[in-house]
């Protein structure tokens, strides 16, 4: 379970990144003090070091870019162009699969 200290630092880092301000321990601490949130003193430095050199916006937008995820907006035209070819190959695969069934082999699922 994520603690309130961690969540407060995450939200502070997201606020800083959204405002295009460098994520530093001092800036995170300033935001936390303004929000009246007390955290252990090592959290702001830890988060600032972890996000050093990381483009947080890209990180957030690519969270769901694993297998089976929707393509990014920039990849939509390329995916749309490839869609007809993919549909044709799927149709061919289905035709090939339908040629051989369990009944042709002499047994069925419910025999």
From TrEMBL:
Renumbered residue ranges of the record's region Disordered: 78-111
What is one Gene Ontology biological process annotated in the Swiss-Prot or TrEMBL record? translational elongation
Q: Does the keyword Ribonucleoprotein apply?
A: yes
**GO terms assigned for molecular function:** protein kinase activator activity; ribonucleoprotein complex binding; structural constituent of ribosome
| InterPro entries, sorted | P1/P2_N_sf (IPR038716), Ribosomal_P1/P2 (IPR027534)
Q: Which organism is it from?
A: Lycosa singoriensis
List GO terms (cellular component aspect): cytosolic large ribosomal subunit
Say yes or no: keyword Cytoplasm present: no
State the name under which the record lists this protein.
Answer: Large ribosomal subunit protein P1
Job of this protein = Plays an important role in the elongation step of protein synthesis.
The similarity comment for this entry is: Belongs to the eukaryotic ribosomal protein P1/P2 family.
User: Which keywords, in A-to-Z order, does the entry hold?
Assistant: Ribonucleoprotein, Ribosomal protein
Q: Which segments show compositional bias classed as Basic and acidic residues?
A: 87-98
What Gene3D superfamilies does UniProt report for this protein, alphabetically? 1.10.10.1410
Identify the PANTHER family for this entry: 60S ACIDIC RIBOSOMAL PROTEIN P1, LARGE RIBOSOMAL SUBUNIT PROTEIN P1
């Amino acid at each position: 379970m994520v603690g309130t200290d961690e969540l407060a630092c995450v939200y502070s880092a997201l606020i800083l990144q959204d405002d295009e301000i460098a994520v530093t321990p001092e800036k995170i601490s300033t935001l936390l003090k303004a929000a009246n949130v007390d955290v252990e003193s090592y959290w702001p430095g830890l988060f600032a070091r972890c996000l050093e050199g990381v483009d947080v916006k890209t990180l957030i937008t690519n969270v769901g870019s694993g297998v089976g995820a929707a393509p990014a907006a920039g990849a939509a035209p390329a995916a749309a162009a490839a869609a007809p070819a993919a549909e044709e190959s799927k149709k061919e695969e289905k035709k090939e699969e339908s040629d051989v069934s369990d009944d042709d082999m002499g047994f069925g699922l419910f025999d």
